[in-house]
Amino acid sequence: MLKIVKAVIVFATLQDIVLARVAPDFIKACPAITPACLKKNIQDTLPAFIKGVPSLNIEPTDPLQLMVKDFEPQAGIKLSLDGRMTGIKTCIVDSAKYEKNILDIDLHCNITIKGKYQASGRILIVSINGDGDAKIKGNNIIVNARLKFEDQVRNGITYHVLKDTAVKHRFGDRVHFALTNLFKGNPEISNAVLTFLNENWKEVAHELGTPVVNLAVKRVLDIVKKLFTSVPKSELFP
C-alpha cells in the first residue's frame, strides 16, 4: 500500500512539473490570432516585459545599457558611447498581424539616450573632436518589424522560435542633440558645431543615430528570441 501511495505522489509531482506554466502571468494568448487582439496583447504586455522576467533570465530593457567602443558608423568618424536608453516601455503599438508564421508589427517610440561620448572625425561638413556628456532625444521614431518563426520540438514540446527578422525605422519627428565639448578646449567652436548638428538633424540622425538604434533593436530582439525559445508554443498561441 505504501508503495502505491508513493507512486501516486511521484506521478502527481511529475504531472505538476509537466503542466507547470513557463510563461509569466502577464503574457496572455489570444483566443483567435486577430490583428486587434495581437495589438492589444502586445501593448498590454510591453511595460511588464520590459521590466524583465527573472524566471526566464530576461533582464530589464528600460533603461537599456548601450556601450560601443571605437564604433565607425560611417567613413571618416569614430564614436564611443557609454550610455542608457530610456523610453522603450512607452512605445505605442500601431498595428500587428500574424499570418503563415510571420508577425508584422508597427510601433512608434519616444527615445532618450544619456551618457558619455567620445567622437573624432568629420560628420557632414564639420569636424568633431569631442569628449563629454551626451543627451539625444528622438520623438516619434517609427519602427516596422517583420519576425519569421518556425516550430522546433525539444523533449516532446513544441516551441515557436524566432528564425529571422527584418526591421526598418525612420525618424518621424526631429531629433535633438545636446553634446558638450564637441571640440575639445574651444567652447565657441563646440557651440557652433552643436548648432549645426541640430539644424541638420535629419542627416545627422541618419548617419549617427541609425547605427545606435540598430544596436538597441538587436538587443531587444535577442530578448524576444529568448522568450520564444523558452516558452512552449501552446502558452503563446491558441
Automatic annotation (TrEMBL):
It comes from the Eukaryota. GO terms for cellular component: extracellular space. Pfam families: JHBP. This is (diamondback moth) hypothetical protein.
